[in-house]
Specification:
mainly alpha; about 425 residues; two-stranded parallel sheet; about 10% strand; two-stranded antiparallel ribbon; single chain
């Protein structure tokens, strides 16, 4: 609902009240016998006349100047009867502003409240267009405010998500404070800038190397041509052959290294699948560092690196790499070496520990494991073998313990006893 409807209803009510006011005032004047005032108001008409201020002074003067009645829409030539009537109305309005000292009859209305309301209605109608524009502006501002509120809600939601993400990062940061993480982030950003510059520089150097290599090949070819027909021709051919052989060996070495790293990756992920049954696994990748060495890392499905895996996950993925290297070494019959583990399952659950020993039992290698997993506390507080776990192992089991009694203040009294269990 716009303001126009309210303004229209207001005008109708003011008009009705004013008409009633004029009727009451006219009746009062007739009753009081003020014939002079009655004649002035009625102009010998049978209808209730309009108040002298309607239309306003400016409108009346405008109609006189333009010689047209804008109430009925008919022309009113200067000094014609309609024009003279409008002039009379204007004079009556001006005279109404003066105080009539000869007025004997008290006015029916002591105040001019209705007249003031009517004047305000006239001003309101004159400014209605501007008020309508203002309404549209207000609606536009409200719409814009609603849009901004929606954006603020989205920003608040995103901010809450970022706060939760920050909490998760801090929880996984191994005791690092937020300030330390920000410092590390700044360092990483600087390193990334240096890396990007190095990558750009590397591309330039690669281009230069290609040009230099091409220049070198052309020079070597020219050198070979110089030796043609001389005793040095044979040596030039031998030198060219050696260069080709060296390049072939270098290419083969690089290819074999990449194949080996891929083979280790594939085998390691197979072992990881066995060790982490019904648990998070990730994917093992062997990345080649700048110095040519390989580094085993754990990756998410989106190819992002997992920098801080929990202890059990870190242990299993590194074990998987070790198992893969041992298996490939055995297959190639190049080097045989035992696998030695010291308390490898200390961070494992019982189920994961069982999976570990199952994987070990399927390895075609010598494996030495030092663990306390086969011990349990008896009812009298002593450590005894858990025979059920011992029986699950498909291999030889030895118990290593200190010989009792011993002097806990004298290291020389400590002796080790090794007993074969199975």
């Amino acid at each position: 609902m716009g303001f126009e409807d309210i303004a229209e209803e207001y005008s109708q009510k003011i008009s009705a009240v004013d008409k009633k006011r004029r009727k009451l005032e006219n009746d009062y004047l007739q009753t009081a016998g003020a014939e002079k005032i009655i004649k002035k108001m009625q102009k010998e008409t049978s209808f209730v006349p309009l108040p002298v201020h309607i239309p306003g002074q400016k409108i009346m003067q405008e109609m006189l100047d333009e010689e047209v009645c804008k109430i009925c829409g008919r022309p009113a030539k200067m000094h014609s009867e309609p024009w003279n009537y409008m002039l009379q109305r204007l004079e009556e309005y001006k005279n109404s502003l003066k105080v009539d000292e000869d007025e004997e009859v008290k006015p029916y209305y002591q105040n001019e409240y209705i007249v003031e309301l009517q004047k305000r209605d006239t001003i309101l109608n004159d400014n209605l267009a501007e008020i309508t524009k203002l309404r549209h502006h207000i609606q536009k501002v409200i719409s814009n405010n609603n849009r901004l509120h929606d954006e603020i809600k989205k920003i608040d939601a995103n901010l809450n998500n970022e706060i939760e993400a920050k909490k998760r990062i801090l929880a996984q940061a191994d005791g690092l404070t937020e300030e330390q993480l920000l410092s590390h982030l700044e360092n990483i950003s600087n390193w990334m800038d240096l890396k990007n510059k190095a990558v750009s520089r590397l591309e330039v150097l690669k281009g230069q190397r290609i040009n230099h290599r091409k220049t070198l090949e052309e020079a070597q070819e020219s050198l070979g041509k110089l030796a043609e027909g001389t005793s040095a021709a044979l040596y030039a051919k031998i030198a060219a052959l050696i260069r080709h052989i060296s390049a072939a060996f270098k290419s083969a070495k690089e290819t074999n290294k990449k194949r080996l790293l891929h083979s280790i990756e594939d085998e390691a992920n197979v072992f990881l699948e066995s060790l982490n049954t019904n648990d998070f696994k990730g994917t093992i990748r062997i990345l080649e560092k700048a110095n040519g060495q390989g580094e085993a890392v754990l990756m998410n499905s989106d190819n992002t690196r997992i920098f801080n895996p929990n202890t059990a996950l870190r242990t299993t993925y590194l074990m998987s790499v070790l198992f893969a290297i041992g298996k490939l070494a055995t297959q190639r019959s190049e080097t045989e070496f035992p696998l030695i583990f010291d308390a490898p399952t200390s961070s494992f659950t019982d189920a994961k520990e069982t999976e570990f020993f199952n994987v070990i039992s399927n390895l075609d290698k010598q494996v030495v494991i030092v663990t306390k997993s086969f011990l349990k506390e008896s009812y009298d507080g002593n450590l005894v073998l858990d025979q059920n776990k011992v029986n699950e192992v498909s291999g030889r089991v030895f118990r290593i313990e200190k010989k009792k009694p011993f002097d806990d203040k004298d290291l020389a009294t400590i002796q080790t006893v090794i007993t074969k269990v199975k």
